[in-house]
Write a structure and sequence with these properties.
Helices cover 36% and strands 22% of the residues. It has a seven-stranded mixed sheet. The protein has a two-stranded antiparallel sheet with strand order 8-9. A hairpin with a 2-residue loop joins strand 4 and strand 5. It has two domains: 161 residues, ph1033 like fold (Roll), CATH 3.10.590; 146 residues, no CATH class. It is of the alpha+beta class and 329 residues long. It is built from 14 helices and 13 strands. This is HNH endonuclease. GO terms for molecular function: endonuclease activity. Keywords: Endonuclease, Hydrolase, Nuclease.
């Protein structure tokens, strides 16, 4: 699960750091001199526009802060505090240690240390949560003050994430194939179900997004072909999810494709759009308004790159839901 990081940005120096490298993101070209090619490419994939939100912490006494920093993982939520309130949240995308880069960005403190334990963030959201409200949510004494960098445990993190609805729409947990298979087994086993088979799960969604997007923050809709930030794309099942067998659900590499929230997902799911022999078609049996018809006319007859020998059975099953077997689309 995601964990919450408490990150004060209260004193004069921290406020300047926040202004210099979070409010005003760092140009990736500046960072390039201090990082290797592999890390550069990873960051470039995460920040295609080359503008990177950067924060860092010192090692702390007896490396206490560094020990906590090592727990941070992509998808964790950082909440920045200032003037006795939480004023900003951000999603952590990547961590790495780099003393030279930190010194370039922030200099060194009076002890000659720099903020070398770096984490990159994205999806910044403005908040206005008083310490009193925070303490009530998490179960601290009403006068508790957030004074230093801290990595919250699962229980405390869940309270904050649930109450404030702080979750990444782009960075998903790194779910393994084994975890995914186990989750599908449970969802399909009626002895374990306390909800309909059509319901989704965090594990299933996270793994499908991992398979489809491969760590990228932008991707192409499988229907219209336009490129969107991945938080505007759905991991849509090609064959209606509720009709999939266990074996089909386990076929994560072929059962799903990305569809945008700008209309393609709904139009495909409800049968207005069909894919036949690799070509996107309009379903003439559907009653359409002028606007819907205009939208579909821009898409129909395009090739669908997700039609393959491995996926065509799923597209054909989807088509049969909306047209008779012997009819033409």
């Amino acid at each position: 699960m995601e964990n919450v990081i408490l990150q004060p940005a209260s004193d004069k120096k921290a406020k300047k750091h926040f202004h210099d490298t979070v409010l005003n993101p760092v140009e990736l070209d500046i960072m390039k001199e201090y990082i290797d090619d592999s890390l550069y490419e990873r960051i470039k994939n995460l920040y295609p526009d080359g503008k990177v939100y950067v924060w860092g912490i010192t090692n702390g006494k007896q490396n206490a802060k560094k020990t906590e920093w090592k727990k941070i993982k992509p998808g964790d939520i950082c909440v920045f505090t200032q003037d006795k309130k939480i004023f900003k949240s951000a999603v952590i995308t990547l961590t790495f240690a780099n003393k030279e880069l930190a010194a370039r960005l922030w200099g060194v403190d009076m002890n000659g240390e720099t903020w070398e334990n770096i984490y990159l963030v994205d999806e910044l959201i403005n908040l206005d949560i008083s310490y009193e409200t925070f303490n009530e949510i998490i179960g601290y004494k009403h006068n508790y003050i957030i004074q230093g960098f801290r990595y919250l445990n699962d229980e405390k993190s869940e309270k904050i994430l649930s109450e404030l609805d702080l979750h990444s729409t782009r960075i998903m947990e790194d779910i393994s194939k084994e975890e995914y298979d186990s989750e599908i087994e449970k969802l399909m086993d009626k002895d374990h179900l306390d909800r309909p088979v059509s319901s989704t799960s965090r594990v299933e969604q996270a793994y499908l997004r991992k398979v489809l997007f491969d760590g990228k923050t932008e991707y192409r809709c499988g229907i219209c072909g336009n490129v969107y930030p991945i938080d505007l794309l759905i991991t849509a099942h090609i064959k209606k999810r509720a009709d999939c067998s266990k074996e089909e659900r386990l076929d994560a590499a072929h059962i799903a494709m990305p569809m945008c929230k700008f209309g393609c997902d709904d139009l495909y799911e409800k049968g207005y759009l069909l894919v036949e022999k690799g070509v996107i078609k309009a379903n003439k049996r559907k009653q359409m308004t002028k606007y819907v018809e205009e939208y579909i006319n821009k898409i129909k007859d395009k090739e669908c790159e997700y039609w393959t020998d491995d996926t065509k059975k799923y597209f054909e099953a989807h088509n049969k839901t909306f047209i008779d077997q012997d009819s033409k689309i």
